[in-house]
Structure formats: C-alpha cells, structure tokens
Amino acid sequence: MVSFFCSQKMKRTVIDIGTNTILMLIAEYDKQSKNIKTILDIQRVPRLGKGVDKNRNILPESTGKAIEILNEYGFISLKHGSEKITATATSFIRDSHNREEFLQEIRENTGINIEILSGADEAKWTFTGGVYDKIPDKPARLTTIDIGGGSTEITTTINPLKSFDELPTAVLNGRSLNIGSVRINEKFLSHHPPAFESIAGAELFINEHLDQINFDLSGSSLIGVAGTITTLGAIVLGLDKFESAKVDDLVITIGEIDEVLRRLIPMPLEELYGMGDYMTGRADIVIPGILILKCFMQKFGYAEVKVSTKGLRYGVFLRDALFNR
To answer: Of 258, 255, 264, 320, which is closest to residue 287 (Cα–Cα)?
Structure first.
C-alpha cells in the first residue's frame, strides 16, 4: 500500500474548471488521522463552455472570465498560505478546437498551468472525491454519477470497498458520456418553460447515450456529486440559501425526483431563479441535469441516490497527496 503523504500535513489548492462552474478547494490533509480539513470551498458560475457544443470553440468572453476568476483564486490561495495550486479542466476544453490558445492565454495572464483530464481520469478522481467520506461500515460496491455541464461520468467499483485505505488501489469501471446539463439545455430545452416534445426529445437523447454503459452496476449504492445533485438536494429540503452541511449525505428517492420535475418544468425562468441563491447561474440548466439523473436511475434500477457535496476537486487533492505531486 502506498502511503498518502511523506510529511504529516499538506495544504494545497485545487481548482476545478468545468463547463458551467469554476470551483476552488483549499484544504489540509493530516496523514495520521486521514482527515481532510476544508479551509475554503467556493465557486463562481461563468459558464465558460457556452456554445462549445455548437461551434467547438471557447469564446473570447469566456477566456476573459476565466482569467479574472483564476487571478482572484490565485490571490486567495496565496493569502491562505497554500503550498501549491493544481488546476484541472474537463469536457468543454477537451472538446474545443482552440484549447491550446485558451491554455496559453491562461498561463500567460495568471501563471496557472491547466491540466486537461481525460474522461477516464475525470471519472476516477470524481469517484475518489465523492466517496472518500461515505464508505459504509460493511463492505459495499459504490457507484457515482457526476452530472456536469458538458459531460456525465459514471464510475463504479468492481469489488466491494471495505475502507478508505482501499481507495488508491480500488479497481473501477467508468464511462464519460457527452451528455451534460448545458449541452442538453442548448440542444433541447433553451425555451422556458420547455414543451412536452422537447422534454421527450431530451430523454430519448439521454437514454441513447446511457446505452454506452456496458458494465455491471447491479447491487451498488448510488452517490451523486456536482451541481445538479446538490441543487436538487437544496430544492428537496426547501432551502432559500444553500447549506452544505444539510445537503451532504441527503438521500433522495426517485419519487422525490419525479415530484421536483413536475414542479419545476412548468415554472417560468424568473421563478426558478427566485427559489434560492443556489439557482444563480443554474436555473436554466437544473431541469436538464435532473432529467439525466432520472433517466439514469430508471434505466439501471436505482430507487435512491445519496448526495455528496465533494467530488472532483477533493479527488484531485487526494491524488496529489498520493503521488506527492
């Protein structure tokens, strides 16, 4: 077994640059206790991947937003005494034709090098971050669903997990699918409230992509990570302001998901924005995201999903510790 750390404690920053959000985690890990102490966990919602699915280019306005936010994050990280910044990016940059120009502009204007994760690595480290504090007392197979703006990652353990120590060597099956809340919104649901035919078309498209999952998920417990799931949790709880402590570990049933969709689909966009602070930058993509979750759970027979407010940024944090990067 490889040890997670050479020194007792490490303070690092991880920035997760997604299609819809840019998240920043500053955390400290204690080797002896195996605890991650979250110092700061914040997000901005610039929707950098706007239009990438259609024209395959990152827009100049998106590059400008990224530079502004990353410079802000760099200052905050320095202020907190972080030893290193790791910045990762996912599907919208993988899919863009002008990604090299984007990466160069970010590097020149912020001093931050962005690592583009493959779909497989995105799935692996999202799984690690999503389940590290949710491994049950009895050995169990776990599956994560990460519904992002540009893609959805499904990852599952082949064998039951017994403890946190098994995470670094756990054998996983995973798949990254080109269905995300922003993609589905731009392709099918750009008018609000959406028409019945648009919903049906979106569900058909989603299920066609879910057919690409060719590994066994039976008998596993489902954990959901990322903004769609956490927003859904806040809606189920009826929150006005997002509270991570209340949303994390919440169990949501397929019946509750159907009820939320029945409420949300007829609502004008202005009413969706008014539901809570967690709808900022997300109101127009929450329905497509929840549709992806519902279709997945129905197709693979999951009656419930447990919410994790962690995910990729925590997984990359643990990766960096494991390999002493």
So the answer is: 264
Residues 306, 134 contacting (CB under 8 angstroms): yes
N-terminal to C-terminal alpha carbon distance within the chain? 18
Task: List, in order, residues 6 or more apart from 198 with CB less than 8 Å away.
Answer: 188, 189, 191
Is residue 290 within 8 A of residue 264, CB to CB? The reply is: yes
At 215-235, the pLDDT tens digits run 999 999 999 998 899 999 999
Do the beta carbons of residue 317 and residue 14 sit within 8 Å?
yes
In degrees rounded to 5, what are phi and psi of residue 298?
Answer: -65, -40
Q: How far is CA 182 from CA 23, 73, 132, 292, in A?
A: 17, 24, 28, 11
pTM: 0.86
In what side-by-side order are the strands of the sheet with 142-147? Answer: 172-177, 152-157, 142-147, 221-225, 304-307, 251-253
Sign of the torsion angle spanned by Cα atoms 69, 13, 276, 253: positive
The amino acid at residue 100 is: E
In Å, how far from its chain's centre is CA 16? 9
What letter would DSSP give residue 5?
-
| Beta-strand pair 142-147/152-157 | antiparallel
Task: Read off the pLDDT of each residue in 226-247 and give the average, rounded to a whole number.
Answer: 94
* Element holding 41 (H helix, E strand): strand 35-44
- Length of the chain, in residues: 325
Is 223 in contact with 130 (CB distance < 8 Å)?
yes
For the chain, which domains are there? 9-119 (3.30.420.40), 135-307 (3.30.420.150)
